[in-house]
Amino acid sequence: MSKDNTFYFSHDYNARSDIKIRNLILKHGALGYGVYWMLIEDLYNNTNVLPLNYDLIAFDLRVDKNVIQSIINDFDLFIIDGDYFGSLSVQRRLDERNEKSRKARESIAKRWEKTKTDTNVLRPQNNRNTIKESKVKESKVKEIKESTTDVVDNTDDDFSKISNSKSSIKKTEPEKRKKSCAKKKK
After folding, report:
1. pLDDT score recorded for residue 80
2. Element (H, E) at 69
3. CA angle in degrees (0–180, nearest 5) for 115-116-120
4. How many Å apart are CA 75 and CA 78, to the nearest integer?
5. Is residue 105 part of a domain?
6. Is residue 84 within 8 Å of residue 93, measured between CB atoms?
7. pLDDT for 90-143, tens place per residue?
8. What is the CATH number for 63?
9. Where is the composition biased (Basic residues) (predicted)?
10. Structural domain for 38, as ranges
11. pTM of the prediction?
């Protein structure tokens, strides 16, 4: 079963402490407790109404028919209405879930009504909601522009002068070191 088709229901972590459940466990053990939760799952899957067909339920759950009859009838865990049964606690939880869904639908409807009158609520995908401001000060931007302009204005002659002056610096540094080493030896 894929997770997309799975629904959840709340299961009280202390359900086993309820006196009705304790009596069920006393009589039928863990088997009875497991069958009870299987019936609850089936009720959730069927909007809290299942046909009161003990033979079919016993076959479906692979449990003796007498156990199914006892679990449904003897512990006041289910309500029986003619040929059907359900659970008051399941119904209460379904009602709570339906109420939450109803409120969510109303909230969404109100938002959509607002968008019909306020066209600025939904922005086009290509517009940004915020405008990011530059963190660089204007004076820094001005300095950068001026320095890049200077570099662009330099001619090839200026470049060769700079290049030659760097190579002459490299040549003179070792000569200076030689002279300083010679002075130290003396």
Report:
1. 97
2. helix 65-73
3. 50
4. 8
5. no
6. no
7. 999 888 888 888 888 888 888 887 766 655 555 556 655 555 555 555 555 566
8. 1.10.10
9. 177-186
10. 3-86
11. 0.54
